[in-house]
Specification:
The complex is a heterodimer. By secondary structure, chain A is mostly helical. Chain A is built from six helices and no strands. Chain A folds into two domains: about 70 residues, Helicase, Ruva Protein, domain 3, CATH 1.10.8; about 45 residues, no CATH class. The chains are: A mainly alpha, B alpha/beta.
């Protein structure tokens, strides 16, 4: 028992140790860049978090150790620190070279309209179906006349094992 | 009502499957559409690999359709496409410009000596800056330029006989580049 407990405890320790390690690993690769001030550094950080690494499908520049991601981090650093570009200028710079792909937030244009519109269309469709189902349900409820209602009561009463003669009749 | 309630979910299901089929298409996974298609090739100023004194700019690529091939000695696929590049250089009038991307110049020179040099020029891009201007994210990549220096096609991955036949040769013919063997074909009965 104590061996088992020891094993579990060890696993727990191991796993808890791994969680922060893994998360820092995912957040950023370490580069040694120097910044004039913290604002500049924060802008650089935000930008490399924002762009997608062109080689790796679903990792941002900050989280990838692909050579191209390293190069693009260097490029973002150069644009921000040395060429003093604004965030939007950096975005435009990368977009003109690597296309919409590097922007995690795809623009609305001729190629991407359906990505934006399909969820809205599906939501509207769902709403329509829901409304129609509800209305159909209401109509079914109100369509019973007095005779039908009495019959229904009879059937329900009979199935409950307590036969009652229709009082309405 | 009952008809619609049957067909609407079916249609939605088909729509989602259709979009998924397009979105997760394995064939297109590793190919980003180039942002440069139908745009001018970027301005650059690069040194030649075999003569660091001499520089080449975008203007030098104008006047003739050209194939710009990004390669490196650390790239195994570049070696596998090398034979096809040699064949294209030997049998066509296509101008081939090599961009030696993030490589050691001495290793690159040795490679060309060993496997042959299909390039009219090899540009030295050891720090990968020209690569970034071109939107390169891996080697090999090949750009097809018209005589005005606009990118008309980009291939990510190797150049092989199938790609040459289906993608490159028809485009070069359209741009008016002659292929040797054309005369042999035309004189054949």
């Amino acid at each position: 028992m104590s061996i088992l407990l020891g094993k579990t405890a060890r696993w727990l320790v191991l796993v808890t140790l791994m969680i922060p390690a893994a998360s820092t690993l995912a957040v950023s690769q370490i580069d040694t860049f120097e910044f004039a001030d913290e604002i500049e550094q924060r802008r650089y950080r935000a930008l490399i978090e924002e762009f997608r690494c062109p080689k790796c499908l679903n990792t941002n520049l900050a989280g990838s150790d692909a050579p191209i991601a390293q190069d693009l981090r260097k490029t973002v650093y150069r644009l921000v620190v040395i060429e003093a570009m604004s965030d939007q200028q950096v975005r435009d710079y990368l977009q003109t070279r690597y296309g919409d792909f590097v922007l995690y937030d795809p623009p609305f244009n001729a190629r991407t309209w359906y990505i934006w519109l399909v969820p809205i269309a599906l939501a509207l469709l769902a709403l329509l179906v829901l409304l129609r189902m509800q209305r159909a349900g209401q109509r079914a409820a109100t369509l019973l006349d007095a005779g039908q209602r009495a019959k229904l009561q009879n059937i329900m009463a009979e199935s409950a094992g307590d036969p009652v003669q229709g009082s309405d009749r | 009502m009952s008809r619609a309630s049957f067909y609407i979910p079916l249609a939605v299901f088909a729509l989602i499957m259709g979009l998924g089929y397009i979105g997760f298409d394995l064939g297109a996974r590793n190919e980003l559409p180039s942002a440069l298609i139908n745009k001018p090739f970027p301005e650059f100023n690069a040194r030649l690999l075999d003569d660091a004194e001499q520089t080449v700019t975008r203007d030098d690529l104008l006047g003739k359709p050209a194939m710009v091939n990004v390669w490196a000695t650390w790239c195994p696929t570049c070696l596998s496409e090398h034979g096809e590049l040699m064949r294209i250089a030997a049998t066509t009038d296509v101008v081939i410009v090599g961009v030696n991307y993030k490589d050691r110049p001495d290793a690159a020179k040795q490679w060309l000596a060993q496997y042959g040099n299909p390039y009219d020029w090899v540009l030295d891009d050891r720090d990968g800056l020209l690569g970034i201007e071109m939107g390169v994210y891996g080697a090999p990549e090949t750009f097809l330029l018209n005589a005005q220096g606009e990118v008309v096609y980009k291939r990510v991955g190797d150049i092989n006989p199938r790609i040459w036949r289906d993608e490159l040769e028809p485009r070069f013919r359209l741009l008016g580049v002659s292929m040797s063997g054309d005369s042999a074909v035309s004189t054949a009965p």
